[in-house]
Design goal:
Order of helices and strands: HEEHHHEHEHHEH
Shape: globular
Strand order of the largest sheet: 2-1-3-4-5
Strand content: 15-25%
Number of helices: 8
Length: 170
């Protein structure tokens, strides 16, 4: 089942600032030959709680996705109230695994760049880069607590790290 790409969402200055930080981390991931994804978790007050980028090529850990890494890096440092009011900014729409990590972390808000449908256009030719065709929104709708989800946003910027990366090996 294939869904169509969503329209780009306009962001306020604060959300745009932090999403750009996640996009910068996606470039860092790519420079290490990892898939180009980055994420930051920011408190309601604007404090950086955690960050992560895809590190699967460097570590060999198939769960080393940006959002899951950022959630792992939270550790037990923050109380439930802080996380419920925090936002995770992700350069790309969280996959099913990362959406589950976000759910279990208690983070209450997600803002993402490029959506999964557009990512499939890049990744579609590479068999090992396929994903489950399920939006993070579907995971979050199943949650007993609210998880606000905003995206896709800053599409031109969040798309750039993917250009030329998803090339099938010869």
């Amino acid at each position: 089942m294939t869904t169509s790409a969503l329209d780009e969402v306009a962001l306020n200055d604060t959300d745009a600032k932090y999403l750009r930080q996640a996009i910068e981390l996606s470039k860092r991931a790519r420079s290490g030959n990892n898939r180009p994804f980055g994420a930051v978790i920011i408190s309601k007050e604007g404090q950086l709680l955690s960050e992560g980028f895809n590190n699967t090529a460097e570590t060999g850990d198939i769960t080393g996705h940006a959002e899951t890494t950022a959630v792992r890096n939270l550790g037990a440092k923050y109380d439930r109230h802080t996380l419920e009011n925090a936002t995770i900014y992700s350069s790309g729409e969280p996959c099913v695994m990362c959406a589950g990590s976000i759910f279990w972390s208690g983070v209450g808000r997600v803002v993402f760049g490029i959506d999964a449908v557009r990512l499939r256009d890049f990744r579609g030719q590479i068999a090992t880069a396929k994903d489950v065709e399920l939006s993070c929104r579907d995971i979050f709708k199943s949650s007993p607590h609210d998880i606000e989800c905003i995206g896709p946003a800053l599409l031109e910027e969040s798309t750039l790290p993917h250009i030329g990366f998803w090339v099938a090996p010869k």
